[in-house]
Amino acid sequence: MIKPQVIAAYPITPQTHIVEKISEYVANGEIDSQYIRVESEFAAISACLGAEATGVRAYTSTSSQGLALMFEVLYIVSGMRLPVGMTVVNRALSAPINIWNDHQDSMSCRDSGWIQLYAETAQECFDLTLMQYKISENKDVLLPSMVCLDGFTLSHVYEPFHIADEKDVRDFLPDYVPTHAVLDPEQPLTLGPIGFPSHYMELRSAQVRAMEGSIKVIENTFKEFSDKFPVQMKGNRPEKYFHVEEYRMDDAEIAFVALGSVCGSIKDVVDELRKNGEKAGLVKIITYRPFPRDALKKALKNVEKIAVLEKAVSPGGNGPVFEELSSLLYEMKSCAQIRNYIVGLGGRDVKLDHIRKIYEMTKMGVGGRQEWMF
Amino acid sequence: MAIMGLPEEEYFSCGHRACAGCACATAIRWITKAAGKNSILVEATGCIEVVSTPYPETAWKLPWIHGAFENPAAIASGVSAALKSRGLADKIKVVALGGDGSTYDIGFGHLSGAFERGEDFTYVCYDNEAYMNTGIQRSGATPFGASTTTSPAGKESIGKIEWKKDIMHILAAHGSPYVASASVGYPQDAFRKLRKAMETKGPTFVNLFASCPTGWRVDPAKSIEVAKLAVETGAVPLYEIIDGKHVVNPQSKDASKLKPIEDYLKVQGRYSHLFKPVRREKELAMIQERVKQNLQHLIDLSAKGF
After folding, report:
1. What pLDDT does B67 receive?
2. How far is A85 from chain B (nearest CA, A)?
3. Does A1 have pLDDT greater than 90?
């Protein structure tokens, strides 16, 4: 549906279904893309860099070690302002080697200058992939984007979702016409020069400003998409896409904050808690980069206690979302108590009981700043 | 200055920041002349990238892109694919460029991958036999006996103790339709090979030997002279592998007429430890023997039709 003219990808569990399916589409002539079967993820992202610089839409997908291998080029792609689109099928990082889900891979690329959107459901994976190109290719943004989806939980799941009508998608996301500098013999340009100390900060700050500005573009794109493609299956996506999804937050006193598929389980626990008269709610983060400060400030302004559930951790520090939220609360002069719960690393199940216990601990103020639940 | 037989158009302008006598910069002029206007160049990190593109200036009059040290072959694959999808593949040539550090070492996996896939572009290695941009460190292309900052000659060391990687045959073994070695000492020959590589469909390769007066400790005025000596002594044989068959060029046709290898080694500071304080007879003999054998092997292959 996104019609990338160039696809370059390398297989890695649990992303393999994506490259296999794309291979089938190409083999059966269902899509008209140049598909480069590269020799590594490093080559995949490099080929996408070359393709985008030559003025076409490029797509790649990877997981875990593959994303880690791409790391060097991620910064180059964003620094060169090339709107490459990538699906990250989230998986743990070695060692020990582990093919199952957590968020350590994409979180370690937090600062690479890529927009990051996290999906909870199959429907959101589909929708966000359509939206990521619209956002990335916006002339005021021109930054690459990752849609992050949980390995196995979302990559190997049978779950009903609505596939938008192709004509409407074309309307929403027309064929790509670059408006920025591309490699063209008629207009020779030098892309990727050396930037001395006299210019490096100017270029970096322009990139950072574009990332900050993208928050509005993402918001508008979410709105346009939600209006154009209304919910077809209740509950499998937010009715109106926004940077965060507030679930039963109206009068919530204790809020969970999380990203990705674990939000489904948290919603179930919130429902249960609500039935028991508890004022619980969930703030699901969809847009993680750029960090949606205003949306989070609004969502969390009245809560007393916050439990951040994260599938990533900085050894010697905390979960990345916890750190940023803490600093946001300080800025808000909020006195809310905030705790960091590290869950689901390397595919460990996050059970409803874990979430119930997290609620209990947060409510009673039991345990330390960082607690591991497994 | 026009060189006989080479187009007069210049696509690599003067005013770049290369060292005096840099033969790589000379090589780039010929590469761009061979590529012509309708081409896209993809360059690895290295000397040439650094000296030619201090933002916001550029020496390039052709569309040019640089990503990282190890990935010009992968970026070129993406550029080729994009041109194909835009229906421009037959109109625009893609040329990837890298020094020997990128080509022989850090970018070698990507180069191999692209050649295995049969990508349609020409890869030119400007080979100055060490990591010159970072200050003369040894690479897989550094010859036996050469002193570099990471293989320094010393009381217990004669410089690099490994022989140069045979990149030509490795790439030919990928099934490349055209692989050639050239030297900046022979502009017309190099230009012909570059053109032929660019006109041949599929992944083609030219190893363009380019002297580095700074790294080799040679008088900058002798840059081209030393590149010629490399061929005349057999240190750098000029040959092509066309569809798997060897063609040894006239400059390297006769192993019995080679100048002594010492003529080439003596003029370079990177080999000075082989001559003083004492002559390293054993190593000098080894190098001489190896050079002769190498060339004879190529001549034999060519004579047998391989």
Report:
1. 98
2. 14
3. no
> For the residues A173-196, what does the mean pLDDT come to?
95
Residue range(s) occupied by CATH 3.40.50.970 in chain A: 6-228
Are the Cβ atoms of A43 and B74 closer than 8 angstroms? yes
Parts of chain A belonging to CATH 3.40.50.920: 244-373
Residue B90 burial (10 A CB sphere; 0-12, 13-18, 19+):
exposed
Give the fold, CATH level 3, of A6-228.
Answer: Rossmann fold (3.40.50)
The minimal CB distance from B63 to the residues A47, A188, A199 is found for A188
Angle between the N-to-C axes of helices B23-35 and B187-199, in degrees from 0 to 180, rounded to the nearest 10: 40
Q: Is A112 on the interface with B (CB under 8 A)?
A: no
A–B: how many Cβ contacts below 8 A?
A: 156
Pick the CATH number of A244-373 from 3.40.50.920, 3.30.1330.60, 3.30.390.30, 2.115.10.20: 3.40.50.920
User: Can you tell me whether residue B68 is helix, strand or coil?
Assistant: coil
Contact A8 B77 (CB under 8 A): yes
Do B107 and B72 meet the contact criterion of CB atoms below 8 Å apart?
yes
Q: Which residues of B touch A80 (CB under 8 A)?
A: 67
Q: Is the pLDDT of residue B1 over 80?
A: no
Mean pLDDT on B47-66:
97
Tell me chain A's radius of gyration from C-alpha atoms.
20
Section A238-254 average pLDDT: 98
The topology (CATH level 3) of B23-303 is: Rossmann fold (3.40.50)
Residues 3-42 of A with CB under 8 A from B: 5-6, 8, 32-34, 36-40, 42
Domain locations in chain B as residue ranges: 23-303
What does the buried/exposed string (b/e) look like for B67-87 if buried means 16 or more CB atoms within 10 Å of the residue's CB? bbbbbbbbbbbbbbbbbbbee
Contact predicate A12/A63, CB 8 Å: yes
Nearest CA of chain B to the CA of A139: how many Å? Answer: 20
For chain B, give the mean pLDDT: 97
Answer whether B103 touches A (CB < 8 Å): no
Selecting from A43, A184, A194 the residue whose C-beta is nearest the C-beta of B71 gives: A43
On whether the pTM is more than 0.90, the answer is yes
